[in-house]
Amino acid sequence: MAHRPTVIRTVSALRKALAPFRSRGQGIALVPTLGALHRGHLALVKEAQKRARRVVVSIFVNPTQFAPHEDFGSYPRQFETDMAALTEAKADIVWAPSSEVMYPQGFATRLAPEGAALAGLEDKFRPHFFGGVATVVAKLFTQVSPDFAIFGQKDYQQLRVVTQMAKDLDLPLKVIGLPTVREKDGLALSSRNVYLSELERMHAPVLYRTLLTCAGRIKAGEPIEMVLEEGRLDITRAEFALDYLEARHALTLAPIASLKDGPIRLLVAAKIGKTRLIDNLGV
């Protein structure tokens, strides 16, 4: 039977647990999560184990990245199921602080990222989001002090923001982005997929199929904006309420007009029923 990861809930206990690893020169990788783990998260754990001798998985549903109208209260929480998965995956430590530990009384410092965080994508619809993400991830990085931090590319704008934040603050770690893990029909794995009805689940892969079609046409030299406009129509015809379908520079997320301005990343966000899905794809 696999050894159950050590669950730690205070910063002092976390640092005490990590000290022996460091004294033995064992590298540490961090996989930050909100819990409700799926195969995508476990792929991040597997990559972390390739990069470092010890793996810390954080489970923290961060209240500062949810707006009042969003699903903080109903976000899936399944700690024992997550622990079973992480036991099977042979993670070393689960860092599971409470909100009171992460944001104690008197907490008064928050990051205000710019650059990719103000690209007019997720930030346009969730203006609170990247300040909350940057602040909590900076705390996780300083609490764990990992050599590597492993993120999925599904939240692509978040990955760019976190990567830039670590660089700008001279944090001594490398941020790694792993390709999105998908269902057989292309739907990007997400903890929020459990909200989809059976009919909505049938329509959901339209986002990925549209990204594939658009990427192929743009790569073939068709005008970007024309391709995107037709892609937007395809998504709305599939019963989605579209927030955006955009082509952006893959590193800066600045708007892009042609292939020569690349590398290009296509990014999409749309709501079907009550569930908001995001996805992205390189051209």
Write the layout of secondary structure elements.
Layout: E1 6-8, H1 11-23, E2 28-33, H2 39-51, E3 54-59, H3 79-89, E4 93-95, H4 99-102, H5 122-125, H6 129-144, E5 148-152, H7 156-168, E6 174-178, H8 198-203, H9 206-219, H10 224-237, E7 241-249, E8 264-272, E9 275-282
Parallel strand pairs: 1-4, 2-3, 2-5, 3-4, 5-6
Antiparallel strand pairs: 7-8, 8-9
What does this structure look like?
The protein has 283 residues and is of the alpha/beta class. The chain folds into 2 domains: 173 residues, HUPs (Rossmann fold, 3-Layer(aba) Sandwich); 88 residues, 2-Layer Sandwich (Pantoate--beta-alanine Ligase, Chain: A,domain 2). 38% of the residues lie in helices and 19% in strands. The chain contains 10 helices and 9 strands. Strands 1-4-3-2-5-6 form a 6-stranded parallel β-sheet, sandwiched between helices. A 3-stranded antiparallel β-sheet has the order 7-8-9, with helices on one face. Strand 8 and strand 9 form a beta hairpin. The protein is globular. The N and C termini lie far apart (44 Å).
What's the short version?
With 283 residues, this protein is α/β, with parallel strands linked by helices.
Categorize the overall geometry. Answer: globular
Named CATH topology of the largest domain: Rossmann fold
| Helix run count | 10
State the order of secondary-structure elements, H for helix, E for strand: EHEHEHEHHHEHEHHHEEE
User: Class of the largest domain, according to the CATH hierarchy?
Assistant: Alpha Beta
Summarize the biggest pleated sheet.
Answer: 6 strands, parallel
Please give the CATH architecture of the largest domain: 3-Layer(aba) Sandwich
N/C terminus separation: 44 Å
**Low-confidence blocks of residues:** none
The total tally of domains equals 2
